[in-house]
Amino acid sequence: MGKDALEAMARRVMVRVAMIDGELHQSEVARLRWNVGRLTGTTPTEAQVQADVDEVQARAVPLSELLSQARDELGSEGRRAVVRAAYIIATADGDVPPAEEQLIQEIARGLGISRDEFRALVSPMALARALESG
Q1: Domain 3-133, CATH class in plain words
Q2: Does position 126 have pLDDT exceeding 70, yes or no?
Q3: How far apart are CA 48 and CA 8, in angstroms?
Q4: In angstroms, rounded to a whole number, what is the distance separating the alpha carbons of residues 95 and 110?
Q5: CA distances from 21 to 25, 42, 64, 99 (A)
C-alpha cells in the first residue's frame, strides 16, 4: 500500500474517531489535516476530509470493512500509524471519553494489533500529553 493509501486510511479512521459525538467541528478538521500531514507527509484537503465525513454520515463503509481493508493492504508499520492517528485525534481536545477509548481499542483489534502492542504505541503519547499539561 502506498503513501496515498496510508494517508487515506489514517484520515478515514481519524474522521470516525473525531465524529464519535456525531459531528466534526472545524477545529477538529484543522487538527486532523495537520496530524495526517505530520504522520504521512501528505496533508489532506478540506474536500477530502469532507468526503470522509459524508462517508461516515451515509454509513457507506462500515468500520469493520475499512479495518479489514487496512489489515489486508497495510504493513505492520502502516497499521501502527493508523492506530497512532486514531489516538492523536482522540486526545486532541485533552480528554478521551470512554466511547473514544473503546473505539480506538476496536480499531487496534480490527487491525490485528495486540493489547500489549497497543499499550506500547499509546503509552509514550499519553506520557507526553501528561507532561505537556502538567
Answers
A1: mainly alpha
A2: no
A3: 9
A4: 23
A5: 10, 27, 19, 9
- Kindly list the domain boundaries of the chain, sorted by start residue: 3-133
pTM summary value: 0.84
Residue 45 backbone dihedrals phi, psi, to 5 degrees: -80, 165
Whether the pLDDT of residue 29 is over 90: the answer is: no
Q: All 3 cell numbers of residue 92?
A: 486532541
Residue 68 grid cell: 479489514
- CA distance readout (Å), 29 to 35, 76, 104, 109: 10, 27, 18, 25
Q: Scanning the structure block, which residue is given the C-alpha cell 486514531?
A: 86
Question: What does the block give as the cell for 114?
Answer: 495486540
Q: Which of 113, 102, 119 is nearest to 17 (CA)?
A: 102
**What integer best gives the mean pLDDT of the chain?**
85
Confidence of residue 51 (pLDDT cuts 50, 70, 90): very high
**Dist. CA 109–CA 118, nearest whole Å:** 9
